[in-house]
Fold:
Amino acid sequence: MDYPSKRTFAIDLNPSMVGQEVTIAGWLEDLRDIGKIGFVSIRDMTGPLQAVVYDDTLSVAKDIPRQSTLIIQGKVQESRAKNAQVEIMVTKLIVVGKAFHPLPIDPTGRIESSLDKRLDSRALDLRNPRVSCIFKTKSIVLQTIRHVLFSKRFIEVHTPKIIGSATEGGANLFSFEYFKRKGYLAQSPQLFKEQLVLGLERVFEIGPYFRAEPSHTGRHLSEFISVDFEAAFLEYYDIMDIVQELISKVIKVLSQECIHDQIFVNGITREDGNIPRISYEQCISELSSIGVKLEFGDDLSDASLKKLGEIYPGFYFILDWPTNLKPFYILEQKQNPEISRSFDLQYGYLELVSGGTREHNPDILRGKILAQGLDPDLFSDHLKTFEWGMPFHSGCGLGLDRLMMVLAGTNNIRETVLYPRDTERLNP
Structure:
């Protein structure tokens, strides 16, 4: 059968179209039969609409299972329904894809299902408006991030996800056979993006990365989307400024979008959009004042970060971490080498961004690699680029899926990923 290719979306229907013939495509949610006529609730990617069926179209509609995909043709008319200004008087109804019952989950959300059951039927789960809203929002967030970075002369790049050595420690990398050699899945683009600033100066990448951590928490995945950017001639506080602008712009854009009423936009409420910046030492001091005793050099536990989140609700930066808590490529402060030029962006206990100024002196960098018990030979391709006139540079990585946890008001990262991969899940 040849199907009509031109269609009108539900969101575009309006009173100025009364009397026009339109074609609508979507899935059947409900049919209310009141005798000679029936009211059909149809939903497409943009939202719901109401259609009126009668005579032959009513007879056909009665036999269509809920969630079947339809194409309807008809005339736009005024509606008496409270939640719709117009409706479609149906003249033709075509069943494109029949839904076979019983369905594994109820995509309307009226009958709740466990997250695991929903993930097993994720494609159907996306017909739930609350669920699809998360991923529509995620698309808007990505578009906004790209817009901000492009406006600052960043260039979008793509670095390899298959690498030949277990750099950055390598304990949490997935390994596999790669044409009779050992290959690994990249856990970050860190080394590549640093190399790229040599000639491109400002780069960013949005892509999947992999970490073989046996974590069983609501915020860890084996595959995740990271937003990484690196810039020559910028310090870590310049990168914090960009991160702050990204978060502020995302909040502003989402507050203006039509879907914002279905998603919880948290965080910046100040008119100036400033995110508090707290030094690590200040964190230790403030935690000590409320009975949480920590020494300089101790990492901050989830419990400690939750306490800080009570003091600083919303987003907040922790900067100037102890050097011993940061990777080898992070530069230390000139006045005190025990403190690094680094920062994390937090939301309560949840770390969203980690970044800092990088060490760009090849001799010092080689020494730091040795000091951490790593083999400099594994970094030979990386180190040689630092001998070609490497500028000082800074950057960060933002966990997109964790940011979506904050925006969507969920405590489980799997809600924000279409097909999450963790220690238990490899399908679908």
User: Anything to note?
Assistant: Residues 267-271 have pLDDT under 50 and may be disordered.
